[in-house]
Design brief:
The chain is an alpha+beta fold. The chain is built from 10 helices and 12 strands. Strand 5 and strand 6 (158-173) form a beta hairpin. Helix 1 (19-35) crosses helix 4 (94-110) and helix 2 packs across helix 3. 23% of the residues are buried.
Length: 296
């Protein structure tokens, strides 16, 4: 559970910071690093604060968090990163900027009058699957309180709705859908249940006997070793290696065993055959035999 204060490693005696202040400092770093120009409008539009408060936040960031990170440029009419810029409240990854763009666009679609300043982006998202609030609330409550619940569930392998008694422990977001990881009494094992396929709540069934700690595929991890497709030329392989930030020609992704199938799917890989075109395949799994054991 998130508290109202977040501890972050930084050269100041005023930590931990309040959550909302930390978010403003993070936006300062993200916009400055990846756009090269930060203005008070970024903070005003994103957090609904006055220009005076935004200016105070920037000055406090420069005074207490990162004195050498930003400099005001009169030509830009804003702050730009210095040559000594070093992230203090972010990791300095492009994904942080891209996620900020995605979040701003999501808010703008909901609140049409909200202008967060990121008008030069467009985000494509897969069709949303319908999840009923009462279903999700019940699953979250059961996971939080370690309870079993009797739920109505439909699957592609069964023509009728079934009653499933499950003990949920974790909600999982994949690029295409949300599901819940839970112990299923029918299968006597842990399974993934797609949230949009729950049809009703039949009732609570008491305390859960099986927990997240007993889910071995959740507790165990596996390394997926990615390499450029060996059928590509040396020059093409070097491009792919740079794309995926590979070191010594490989990128290692450590993931829970239960989540391996979703990572493989997100990477657009088929563990049983190669794409006929190496330019389409681009990457391969070096430890294929090991990963196949977890991709079921």
């Amino acid at each position: 559970m998130l508290s109202n204060a977040i501890a972050v490693s930084a050269p100041t005696e005023n930590w931990p910071l309040r959550w909302e202040l930390l978010m403003r400092y993070r936006l300062i770093e993200i916009v400055a690093q990846w756009e090269g120009r930060l203005t008070t409008n970024h903070l005003c539009n994103s957090f609904g604060i006055a220009r005076q408060q935004a200016s105070k936040d920037i000055n406090t960031y420069l005074r207490e968090i990162a004195p050498n990170n930003l400099v005001y440029d009169s030509k830009l009419k804003g702050y730009k990163p210095t040559a000594e810029f070093s992230p203090k409240v972010t990791r300095g990854l492009a994904d942080e900027y891209l996620h900020a763009l995605a979040s701003s666009q999501d808010f703008s679609h909901t609140f049409t009058q909200l202008d967060l300043g990121f008008t030069h982006t467009e985000m494509l998202t897969p069709p949303l699957r319908q999840v009923k609030p009462e279903i999700l609330r019940t699953l979250v409550q059961a996971a939080r309180e370690s309870k079993k619940i009797d739920m109505g569930y439909v699957s592609l392998s069964s023509p009728d709705e079934e009653s499933r008694i499950i003990a949920p422990h974790t909600l999982v977001c994949t690029p295409l859908r949300w599901h819940v990881r839970a112990y299923c009494e029918k299968n006597r094992d842990y399974r993934d249940f797609v949230l949009s396929r729950f049809r009703g709540i039949n009732g609570l069934e008491g305390n859960a006997n099986m927990s997240r700690e007993q889910d071995l595929r959740w507790q165990n991890t596996v390394d997926i070793v990615l390499i450029p497709d060996s059928r590509l030329s040396a020059y093409q392989q070097s491009i792919i290696a740079e794309d995926y930030h590979m070191i010594a020609g490989k990128r290692i992704i450590t993931v829970r065993s239960a989540l391996v199938p979703y990572v493989v799917q997100a990477l657009n890989l088929d563990l049983h055959k190669l794409d006929a075109r190496p330019e389409a395949q681009q990457i391969m799994v070096a430890n294929l035999a090991e990963v196949r054991l977890h991709a079921f």
